């Protein structure tokens, strides 16, 4: 099994889980580069996992279906017009002998979900390395609860977020906590990766507990203050 990203737009990642001649596609925001890859590799079966309804995570679905109409699509209720199977909190299902558990991770959108496949977490725009999604719902309590849910995962869980935001997030974290040596070191490491145009993901939950201020927030007020500061950063 191989897990790797295809870039989309300026900073999106479409995560692919390739297992023999079957492929799982997470949040295909656009189809251009992806269709080239699919036609080159000629997979037996395709499955799409959607985390939320935003177009930069769903915009490629219809083009994929036009070429591969047998594709299965799992997603939350907010993407029900695209889904072949709608899933919710604590649902479990199997794709190509891989087991998935669904976590409701709302706040960025009302019905945002994440997928836990063994120790791989596909979290869309809920959790980023050193950051979290904007709270477009205005429901900061929901996003704070989502952060607590992530914090309770095992440290070895790998974090496959939907965007390459790590350097920006760590720059903000360093500004907020300039004496934090773990954040300073992580920022330097990330800058070196980005200079080579290499992805900074996946991260791990254990690493995020050390460098992600949003995961570290001890109460709702602290979380809101951090999120609003990041919005204005």
Task: Please give the count of helices.
Answer: 9
Main sheet: strand order: 1-2-3-4-5-6
- What share of residues is helical? 25-40%
Shape: globular
Structural class: alpha/beta
Element-level helix/strand string: EEEHEHHEEEEEEEEHEHHEHHH
Rounded mean pLDDT is: 97
How would you describe what is shown here?
It is a single chain. The protein is of the alpha/beta class and 233 residues long. It contains nine helices and 14 strands. A six-stranded mixed sheet has the order 1-2-3-4-5-6, with no helix packed on it. Helix 5 packs antiparallel against helix 6.
Q: How would the blueprint of this fold be written?
A:
Blueprint: E1 2-8, E2 12-19, E3 22-26, H1 32-41, E4 45-49, H2 55-58, H3 61-67, E5 72-75, E6 85-86, E7 92-95, E8 98-104, E9 113-117, E10 120-124, E11 127-128, E12 131-132, H4 140-151, E13 158-161, H5 166-176, H6 181-195, E14 203-204, H7 205-211, H8 213-216, H9 220-231
Parallel strand pairs: 3-4, 4-5, 5-6, 10-13
Antiparallel strand pairs: 1-2, 2-3, 7-8, 8-9, 9-10, 11-12, 13-14
Please summarize what this structure is.
The protein has 233 residues and is α/β, with parallel strands linked by helices.
